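Q: What would this chain look like folded?
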Amino acid sequence: MIAEAPTNRNRLLDRFYSSLLSEKIKEKSEFVIVLMAIIGFGVHLLLIAAVSLDLIRPQDHSKLLDSPIAAIYTPFSFILIYEVYLLVYYLPKSIYNYIGKQYEIITLIVIRRLYKDLSKLEFTDDWFKVRDDLQFTYDLVATVLLFSLILIFYRLKQKQGEPGQKQSHSLETKRFITLKKLIATCLVPIFVGMSVYSLSHWIYENFFSIGQMVDSMKDVNKIFFDEFFTVLILTDVLLLLISFLNTDKFNKVIRNSGFIISTILIRLSFGIDGLLNTILIVVAVLFGVAVLAIHNQFEKLPASTKADLT
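A: My prediction, written as structure tokens:
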């Protein structure tokens, strides 16, 4: 009976994991998210029409209800939700896809911000003197840079390669994968709860609150995702500590530590605005790409040299 206890626990974990993060659930989630994105897009357009006709008067719509162009913001928000799900989905499977999804999410946040700022552009000769126009320019350049860095990141991942799914694993590796499945399973309800609370709180403050809370309200671009990256930082640190059960190689420890620093820099970007915000996001992704590139070069060293260094 004692020997069967771990097996029973593993079966229970696999059952919960499959009910939340299996390939079948991923496909269903994709369909639901696309459907919600289409519905949300339509509802957003209806709200914009209602505001323009003075049928409703929200406390502060933050320019999201001024122009039909701003309605694109809503389906992009649902795409981001699906990217969050994919991040958790890939956590037990691939460290590179897990980190890559973090970079994709912050890039989509920047792109979503572009759609929001489109309605605030002022086409004048003083383009580089208008704050909103400048931020739009920064984000345009940042999007191209981030997209390029993500491409480099995945190419570096391909050059490095990862163990195949059918490859036999050591006992330590199997335990590490099991722990990652447990963490991923726990993250799903955490992120769902966070997203529901963030969205409901924002809707309440904009449409139902009678208090004058406009100045203290959080930027809509930061809703959910500042707390999301805080949870990711804690998760990454936990994964780093658990990874010592699987390996203590110097280059892999530095690689994982570098990814944590990259995530921290992304999280810090939510606390600042303007050009510094954009620079910090680009630097965060650039740092992660650089760490992976150096890690790959380290892997090419002769075994005797790596033994001397570790």
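The chain has one domain: 4-160+169-309.
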